[in-house]
Amino acid sequence: MSDKTHVDFWFDPTCPFAWATSRWILEVEKVRDIEVSWHVMSLSVLNDGREGLSDSYRENVAKGWGPVRVLIAAAQKHGDAVLGDLYTAMGELLHYEEVKDYTEVITRALATAGLEPELAEAAESTTYDEALKASHNNAIAQVGQDVGTPVLALNGTAFFGPVITRVPVGEEAGKLFDASVTLASFPYFFEIKRSRTEDPQFNLESNPSNSAVNG
Fold first, then answer.
1. Hey, how many other C-beta atoms are within 10 angstroms of the C-beta on 213?
2. Rounded to whole angstroms, how far apart are CA atoms 215 and 206?
3. Where are the alpha helices (DSSP H) in the chain?
4. What whole-number distance in Å separates Cα of residue 214 and Cα of residue 210?
5. Among the listed residues 105, 114, 16, 19, the one whose alpha carbon sits nearest the alpha carbon of residue 69
6. pLDDT category, 1, cuts 50, 70, 90?
7. Does the pLDDT of residue 20 top 90, yes or no?
8. d(CA 113, CA 90)
9. How many CB atoms lie within 10 A of CB 30?
10. For residue range 172-186, what is the model confidence (pLDDT) as tens digits?
11. Peptide bond preceding 150: is omega within 30 degrees of 0, i.e. cis?
């Protein structure tokens, strides 16, 4: 039996909270014995047909189908192993460079990940929506409908989050992970929460891949 902690991570590339948590998991890989499997979920699927959304959020939800469709298309052609690199390529454009044009994000990310440019055509197609919804629903089935992204499963126990606004590095990343694994080990533990007072903070200087310290 492996001593590794298995991490299943469901993400929407457009979500800044998922991005922060995912970059933390990459930092954890450097200091803890873990194996990560990446999966796609979608805020567009989650909010499809939902009432009460603001006009700006509804616009983002409509645009958000493109990147997740392309991720599913890439995984179907090349296997799930491509998801991590393609997600990183998309996320760096969306959250570090703050590129707003999702068509540009998709095109540039495919090139960065070394994938075929024609995969971008999936963004405007419903061909991959069934597989996308299946991946999304796999996450939701484990945590319930009243959540967003990310969803993280530790050795099979899934939670929404953790929601973080800065990316810890080194042993700090490891300690946060240890605490998360400990909480997940209690089958009767479900939720811990407080009001958030800041948004995720990203810039090129605070990208952990560029700096040893994240401000």
1. 9
2. 6
3. 16-31, 43-46, 55-63, 65-78, 83-91, 102-112, 129-143, 170-184
4. 9
5. 105
6. very low
7. yes
8. 9
9. 12
10. 999 999 999 999 999
11. yes
Span 44-58, mean pLDDT?
A: 81
In the block, which residue shows the tokens 């299946």?
134
User: CB 37: neighbour CB atoms within 10 A?
Assistant: 14
What tokens does 112 get? 């960065």
At 131, is the secondary structure helix, strand, or coil?
helix
What value does the mean pLDDT take over residues 96-118? 97
**Rounded Cα gap, residues 39 and 135, in angstroms:** 7
What φ, ψ does residue 177 adopt, rounded to 5°? -65, -45
**CA nearest 198: which of 11, 20, 46?**
20
The two tokens of residue 87 are 């997600």
Whole-number pLDDT of residue 114: 98
Pull the structure tokens for residue 51.
């009432």
Task: Tell me the helices (H) and strands (E) count for the chain, helix number first.
Answer: 8, 4
Here the tokens at position 210 are 């560029």
Q: Which amino acid makes up residue 68?
A: V
Specify the 3-state DSSP secondary structure of 64: coil
Beta pairing, strands 34-40 & 5-11 = parallel
Which contiguous run of DSSP H or E holds residue 152? strand 151-154
